[in-house]
Amino acid sequence: LVCGSKVFDFTELEASTEYDGYTVDSEAVKNFWRVAHSLPLESQRRLLQFTTGSDRVPVGGLSRLKMVISRHGPDSD
């Protein structure tokens, strides 16, 4: 039986995320994580589905995922 964990520790995901064109201190990255951490559980599940294709936490936790936040093009006002 494969069902994945129901614990959404986005701190683990944040710590394991890589950045391409951004740094951990970029304003866009800080805003993304601020919002991600403040989402209700159902919205976090949907964010996970959108970014990974699955709404389940893998065995071993969110740190097992390879997430990359990439910049595509210049910032706009």
UniProtKB/TrEMBL annotation:
It is an enzyme of class 2 (transferase). It comes from the Eukaryota. It catalyses: S-ubiquitinyl-[E2 ubiquitin-conjugating enzyme]-L-cysteine + [acceptor protein]-L-lysine = [E2 ubiquitin-conjugating enzyme]-L-cysteine + N(6)-ubiquitinyl-[acceptor protein]-L-lysine. Residues 1-77 form the HECT domain. Keywords: Transferase, Ubl conjugation pathway. Coiled coil: none annotated. PROSITE patterns: HECT (PS50237). GO terms for biological process: protein polyubiquitination; regulation of signal transduction. Its EC number is 2.3.2.26. One of its GO terms (molecular function) is ubiquitin protein ligase activity. This is HECT-type E3 ubiquitin transferase. It comes from Bracon brevicornis.
